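Regression report. Comparing outputs from two consecutive submissions.

Submission 1:
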Amino acid sequence: MRYYVDTNILARLYEGVGETKSLVNFLRQGVDEVLIPAVVVEEMVWLMSRFYKSSKKEIIEFQRSVTTLGEIVYEYNMEDALNLFEKVKAKFNDCVIWSVMGGDGVVVSYDKEFDKLPGIKRVEPRDLIN
């Protein structure tokens, strides 16, 4: 199974809250494939600099640690993302993640907006570690 990690999971991991530590252990030990869309990394860098007011050094260290969690996926279909964005009420970045997934795999996210997107299965960390 392919698992795609959303930004809110990385944010909670950075904060050290919730079940994210257990999730990381689960993903590292028992999953075929963990993928992180590049747009998720980009959103997290923005969050860390603007919201958390993290230093550049902290941002770099955290993002490098993220690469040990899964493979970063850089390619997506812009036209598919735009078409979906036009049709459904969802954030554009969620549509980009959907296009990265290509209808294959599971998104690990607390964001219930993914439930509106066709062909996506969303799970929260507690669904995986319990």
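Submission 2:
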Amino acid sequence: MSYLPYAVAAWLFIIGLYGVITSRNLVHLCICVSVIQSSSYVLLLAIGYRTGRPAPVYADIPAGTPAVDPVVQALMLTDVVVEVTVMALLLALAVQVHKRLGTLDPDRLRKLRG
């Protein structure tokens, strides 16, 4: 069992989290959130992959042959759909903030509090 995919997932999560914490632009913030979401892709692939097992297409393999878990693949597809939706929402909010206030800098948005 290799721990490399788990290390890559953790590394992507940490890099994305660092970008979120230090971001000074809302679009950059959205990209960093996307990097964090990519870490979940790597994690799901690492959990679902089994060495030497075929894809879960059961038409060409004999009954009882172990295959890669298809549930993890379905979860990954769901994860992709969720990420696209979240990115669309965050980028739409960034566009509206820029239209109304003329800036994408989160520090300059402090005047909205009140």
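Expected: both submissions complete independently.
Actual: both completed, but the second showed a warning that disappeared on reload.
Relevant detail on submission 2: The chain has a mean pLDDT of 87.
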